Amino acid sequence: MGDVSTDHKIVTHDAHISSIPNHEKPRKNRFAFGCAVLASMIYVLLGYDIGVMSGAAIFIQHDLRINDTQVEILTGIINLYSLIGAIVAGRLSDLIGRRYTIVLAAAIFFIGAVLMGLAPNYAVLMLGRFVAGVAIGFGVVTPVYIAEISPPASRGFLTSFPEVFINAGILLGYVSNFAFSKLPEHLSWRVMLGIGVIPSVLLGFGVLTMPESPRWLVMQGRLGEAKRVLVRVSDSKDEAELRVAEIKDVAGIPDHCNDEVVQVTKQSHGEGVWKDLFLRPTQSVRRVLIAAVGIHFFQQSSGIDTVVLYSPRILKKAGITGNSALLGASVAVGFVKTMSISVATFLLDRIGRRSLLLKSVGGMIVCLVLLATSLTVVDHHEEEKLMWAIGLSIAMILAFVASFSIGLGPIAGVYCAEIFPLRLRAQGVSVGGAVNRVTSGVVSMTFLSLTKAITVGGAFYLYAGVASVAWVFFYTFLPETQGRTLEEMDKLFAEFNWRSMCRRKHRDSGTSKGGPIELESL
């Protein structure tokens, strides 16, 4: 058994994954694809809960006779409960592995769904929301797992799957609302919430067929097992060998060490991570943390959950009447959102994260301003139906969810999962996930009160302002990560400077007028 230290000096390899000629790379790895699909199923649970609560809340309010404030709390509190799971998940996944953390999440959500489906009153329903929320918080491990098994060439595509499955879950929730809305009031919402036990069972058994993350295996000293997993999830044998070499470098394992099992230091098991994240971060880690927290904060504070959770109320404000019509229109919102995220999965590894993100947020700003304007016009002309304003409101709701889902939606998870150093990755992603859930909870729990204070139109003007700040933040702090290996991110963030990038682009643009130039990478 070899004995290695995480303080071992990192060896620089001349070979690099990007140096493998394209003609030597086979078709994308189907095994990695299957693992990403199975791991992402936990996000169906989150998406389903978000989607189903938009309609179930209508029936719950009538059946349990609760007020708007209680509806806000019931709808949004699961995001705050998930904070507990998100904080625990990082450390837990370092102890028991990424795979078993996801299995545990499925088991906990099963209990929560049963409690919600059988809830006789508001208190038990809230207990079910608490249990389900903790399980959903564990979902932050999924992007980490997918990023750690994915071949670099398709990492953006595969790591965007969680957002795809969130949207699929939201759509299923909307369809469930529509399908069960004809049941008796006391039964409809219980069936809507209780049926969530089905995907949790499928998730639990499905994840058991996946291999463990190779990077986690290396952290545990199980080098031989990690190599075998990398051979299965890489696009070629050469790529697998290079990935093994880079992970060994970062983990501090000597390049010549090929033992089946190696002895690792305690720091490889996650000790000291929180100090390295918050108390003594390097310049690169500090920048990574700012980027991760920022992208998750702005993803939720730009108002997407208000549209998803309260789409029936917003559509009613826009002029649509009748529960069936409102729930049917909500299905359309979910369908557009799902189709848009499906398109985004193919763009991430072609256009790049940064470019797609900036275009997405720019589109969101335009949509939010127009939506706020049209809703304000509708609000000021309640006695007469202005069809152009109603039509514009509906169109902007659909355009907004499309703009979000084609960029900011999937990129937040993809970006955060790939930028943290190996030893800090699980806890770093947990921090981002915690910020995401807290922000989502605050936004969703204050929307109805906010609309009463400044009107629905005013609320969306506010979200447009937040999105504008987000665009500036992303432009300033987020470098392009497309095509980089996970082990290269530390150097990328240490060297990134948006002013230098702008000057280089301006210089390159001027040079291109006089002849060919050699482009530099970020």
Automatic annotation (TrEMBL):
<feature type="domain" description="Major facilitator superfamily (MFS) profile">
    <location>
        <begin position="35"/>
        <end position="482"/>
    </location>
</feature>
<keyword id="KW-0769">Symport</keyword>
<dbReference type="Pfam" id="PF00083">
    <property type="entry name" value="Sugar_tr"/>
</dbReference>
<dbReference type="GO" id="GO:0016020">
    <property type="term" value="C:membrane"/>
</dbReference>
<keyword id="KW-0813">Transport</keyword>
<keyword id="KW-1133">Transmembrane helix</keyword>
<feature type="transmembrane region" description="Helical">
    <location>
        <begin position="73"/>
        <end position="93"/>
    </location>
</feature>
<feature type="transmembrane region" description="Helical">
    <location>
        <begin position="325"/>
        <end position="348"/>
    </location>
</feature>
<dbReference type="GO" id="GO:0015144">
    <property type="term" value="F:carbohydrate transmembrane transporter activity"/>
</dbReference>
<dbReference type="InterPro" id="IPR036259">
    <property type="entry name" value="MFS_trans_sf"/>
</dbReference>
<feature type="transmembrane region" description="Helical">
    <location>
        <begin position="157"/>
        <end position="175"/>
    </location>
</feature>
<feature type="transmembrane region" description="Helical">
    <location>
        <begin position="187"/>
        <end position="210"/>
    </location>
</feature>
<dbReference type="InterPro" id="IPR020846">
    <property type="entry name" value="MFS_dom"/>
</dbReference>
<feature type="transmembrane region" description="Helical">
    <location>
        <begin position="125"/>
        <end position="145"/>
    </location>
</feature>
<feature type="transmembrane region" description="Helical">
    <location>
        <begin position="390"/>
        <end position="417"/>
    </location>
</feature>
<comment type="similarity">
    <text>Belongs to the major facilitator superfamily. Sugar transporter (TC 2.A.1.1) family.</text>
</comment>
<keyword id="KW-0472">Membrane</keyword>
<keyword id="KW-0812">Transmembrane</keyword>
<dbReference type="GO" id="GO:0015293">
    <property type="term" value="F:symporter activity"/>
</dbReference>
<feature type="transmembrane region" description="Helical">
    <location>
        <begin position="31"/>
        <end position="61"/>
    </location>
</feature>
<dbReference type="InterPro" id="IPR003663">
    <property type="entry name" value="Sugar/inositol_transpt"/>
</dbReference>
<feature type="transmembrane region" description="Helical">
    <location>
        <begin position="100"/>
        <end position="119"/>
    </location>
</feature>
<dbReference type="InterPro" id="IPR045262">
    <property type="entry name" value="STP/PLT_plant"/>
</dbReference>
<protein>
    <recommendedName>
        <fullName>Major facilitator superfamily (MFS) profile domain-containing protein</fullName>
    </recommendedName>
</protein>
<dbReference type="InterPro" id="IPR005829">
    <property type="entry name" value="Sugar_transporter_CS"/>
</dbReference>
<feature type="transmembrane region" description="Helical">
    <location>
        <begin position="460"/>
        <end position="478"/>
    </location>
</feature>
<keyword id="KW-0762">Sugar transport</keyword>
<dbReference type="InterPro" id="IPR005828">
    <property type="entry name" value="MFS_sugar_transport-like"/>
</dbReference>
<feature type="transmembrane region" description="Helical">
    <location>
        <begin position="360"/>
        <end position="378"/>
    </location>
</feature>
